[in-house]
Amino acid sequence: MDKKFRENNIQIPFPQRDVHLIQNKD
């Protein structure tokens, strides 16, 4: 989860909130 979250955070230039939502969807 941590790795995916970090990867998404770097890949997606969105705020942490959006990244969290995207991670939740994933």
UniProtKB/TrEMBL annotation:
Gene Ontology CC annotations of this record: membrane
Protein name per UniProt: Uncharacterized protein
Taxonomic path: unclassified sequences, metagenomes, ecological metagenomes
